[in-house]
Specification:
- It contains eight helices and seven strands, in the order βαβαβαβαβααβααβ.
- The protein has helices at about 15-25, 35-50, 65-75, 100-130, 140-145, 150-170, 195-205, 215-225, and strands spanning about 5, 30-35, 55-60, 85, 130-140, 175-180, 235.
- The protein is of the alpha/beta class.
- Belongs to the short-chain dehydrogenases/reductases (SDR) family.
Length: about 240
């Protein structure tokens, strides 16, 4: 396998599971995280065990200059990006009236501005090759909104619109853009819930369980390698919850 995949926010959780899924298939892999340096290095070592080349980029994908340098480094060492998975994301729990401007900006930059940064940098090579996949890891809150998570919901709603619009823009170049609207997935993002809150959440989900990062990874891989006529879709992976 000579193709290169870039996964943002891939030091742990969903991002790491996605990187692992592609590593098992022999893809060249670029991974990224902003703050979790040790986890990122551990993920790199794990991925290398599958016999694939791995490039690490530690930095904020909400920062354009970092993304520009990172993508250039990928191109020089692994080749141009064939598949981009925009997975980097942070949440903020609390009333909007209590939220500080810097907190709002951090959520929007990480969850939404990063889509522009990375997509705009990899698209030219995809257009040149008339092939490419962009997969955005979204949330059901981008579809319906969540109380106490206004910034997160807004960023994911923006991601969904970004996906639909960019898919139309790139369809003539045979580049597909889709998003996965995740429900409650068993990751550290939900670690703020105590046992009672977690049980109540699970009671609301028809499948009576949380989703796994590996299930998100499997759907991501399917979108990256599957039907070229499927584009501009927001695919819910939520156990029938929303």
């Amino acid at each position: 396998m000579n193709k290169t995949v870039l996964i943002s926010g891939s030091g742990r959780g969903i991002g790491r599971a996605i990187a692992t899924r592609f590593a098992k298939e022999g893809y060249k892999i670029a991974i990224n995280a902003n703050k979790s340096k040790d986890e990122l290095e551990e993920t790199k070592d794990y991925l290398i065990s599958f016999g694939v080349p791995v490039l690490v980029g530690q930095g904020d994908v909400g920062n354009y200059e970092f993304c520009k340098d990172f993508v250039a480094g990928i191109k020089n060492t692994l080749g141009s990006v064939d598949i981009l998975v925009n997975n980097a994301g942070i949440s903020h729990i609390g009333l909007l009236s209590d939220m500080k401007p810097n907190e709002w900006n951090e959520v929007i930059n990480t969850n939404l501005t990063s889509l522009y940064n990375l997509s705009s940098l990899v698209i030219p090579d995809m257009v040149r090759k008339s092939a490419g996949k962009i997969i955005n890891i979204s949330s059901v809150w981008g579809n319906v909104g969540a109380s106490m998570e206004v910034a997160y919901s807004a960023s994911k709603g923006g991601m969904n619109s970004f996906t639909k619009a960019l898919a139309k823009e790139l369809a003539p170049s045979n580049i597909q853009v889709n998003a996965i609207a995740c429900g409650a997935i068993d990751t550290e993002m939900n670690s703020f819930l105590d046992s009672n809150e977690l049980a109540s959440l699970i009671d609301e989900i028809p499948t009576s369980r949380l989703g796994s990062p590996e299930e998100v990874a499997e759907l991501t891989y399917s979108l990256a390698t599957g039907n070229d006529y499927l584009t501009g879709q927001i695919i819910s992976l939520d156990g029938g919850w929303c």
